[in-house]
Amino acid sequence: MTDSASNNTPELLSVAETAQLLAVTRQRIHDLIKNGQIIAHKLGHYYYIEANEIDRYKNQPNGKPYQPRSTNSQVNSIDK
How many CB atoms sit inside 10 A of residue 33's CB? Predict the structure, then answer.
């Protein structure tokens, strides 16, 4: 018989392992955790990140959302 609980346990990575996978510093990972951009679990004094959380972070869009410019011409106060 196999233990079904062990099959459902997500792989947990340390901050150092996560930093290495994302090619950033450990401090940057701590900043991302603090800002809520990466969800981590604190066990004792250490944070652990689920492996699927790294994929979610990598696949999120970067930068500002696209906003098309208005096609309406605006009249400056100088033009009046």
Answer: 17
